[in-house]
Amino acid sequence: MIRTLILGATLALSVPASAQSLQMPALSPSAEVMQTVGVTEITVNYSSPAKRDRAIWGELVSYGELWRTGANSATTFETSTDITVGGEAVPAGTYALFTIPGEETWTVILNKNSDQGGTGQYDKALDQARIEVPAADGGARERLTFLFTDTTMKGTRLDMVWDGVRIEIPIEIDTDGMMADSIDSFTNGTGRTFANAARYHMGRSEWEPAIALLDHSINIESTWYNTWLKAEALHEAGTDNKSAYKLAQRAMKMGAEDENFFWKGKVEKAVAEWPKR
After folding, report:
1. Percent above pLDDT 90 for the chain
2. The whole model's pTM is what?
3. Residues 268, 249: Cα–Cα separation, whole Å
4. I need a labelling partner for 83 at 20 to 30 A (CA). Which of 65, 77, 91, 277 fits?
5. Would you give the end-to-end CA distance of the chain in angstroms?
6. In whole angstroms, how far apart are CA 152 and each of 10, 173, 178, 189?
7. Are 213 and 204 in contact (CB under 8 A)?
8. Nearest CA to 161 among 173, 148, 172, 174?
9. Residue 172 near residue 202, CB atoms below 8 Å
10. Which residues pair with 32 in a beta bridge?
11. pLDDT (tens digit, 9 = 90+) per residue, 71-129?
């Protein structure tokens, strides 16, 4: 008995590690497709079933019933920015993509619960977008496939194709609007950066480079902050007290309209005292 146990243990140890973790091909392998549109990234993750000589539409996939639009877990749809899908607003985030197939028209659904194993957890109340699209001829295709097509700077189209059927999901993106906002944010931030750099030079009594940086900042966007700093720089340098006083007055007027006028006392004191010097 003991010899038998020892022999069995020895044989087990001699089996190659690769034989103990035999990998088999998945019937519905994982797939991912991603498209960049302007500055937006859209990604679809799904499991891709094969036809395998089966009748798909109206048989394996029923008409008129909710479908996870793939195999295994529900297909997911992720967008890095706010977009419009079929005319409906879809904020940045990850969604479960469901469909209700029909012989002529499909319902496409983006549901806020992105972590779903299938249709059992589906809650219509969590739908973010629900659109109708026509069923078109997709040609022969063995595996279910998602792909992006007709991509421009302002939109793209997500197609699902399988076994003679194609559905087309239109996606629109306000790239121009997003870029305008980004440029405004960048330039405004750059203006503040120049002003903060000027403060460094002012702390070292380096008035010429400080004033040059403040001029750059004001050219980007004139605020009470950079206007006051230039007033202070000119006043401390003693080169143009008249301009310094006018800038201090302007900074006080601009600051009065800003809830974050954190140097209000300092500016008001300058306006009150500088003319007397």
Report:
1. 75
2. 0.68
3. 8
4. 65
5. 109
6. 64, 10, 15, 29
7. no
8. 148
9. no
10. 45
11. 988 999 999 999 999 999 999 999 999 999 999 999 999 999 999 888 989 999 999 99
CB contact burial 45-84 (16+ within 10 A = b; e otherwise): bbbbbbbeeeebbeeebeeeebbbbbbbbbbbbbbebebe
The secondary element (H helix, E strand) that includes residue 166 is strand 164-172
Q: CA-to-CA distance for 245 and 265, rounded, in angstroms?
A: 15
Q: Which of 32-41, 72-81, 185-194 has the lowest mean pLDDT?
A: 185-194
Instruction: Spell out the domain ranges in the chain.
Output: 26-173, 176-276
The pLDDT value recorded for residue 139 is 87
Amino acid at 128: Q
Closest CA to 131 of 175, 166, 163, 100: 100
- For residue 67, list its beta bridge partners: 99
Topology, domain 176-276: 1.25.40
Query: How would you classify the pairing of strands 40-47 and 30-37?
Result: antiparallel
Residues 218/234, Cβ–Cβ less than 8 Å: no
pLDDT band (50, 70, 90) for residue 17: low
Mean pLDDT of the 123-144 span: 94
Complete DSSP assignment for 139-161? E--SB-EEEEES--SSEEEEEEE
Asked if residues 96 and 110 have their Cβ atoms less than 8 Å apart, the reply is: yes
Element (H, E) at 168: strand 164-172
Torsion of CA 47, 52, 57, 59, to 10 degrees: -110
pLDDT bin (cut points 50, 70, 90) of residue 14 is low
Do residues 69 and 59 lie in contact, with contact meaning Cβ atoms separated by under 8 Å?
Answer: no
> Tell me: the pLDDT tens digits for 19-30?
568 888 888 888
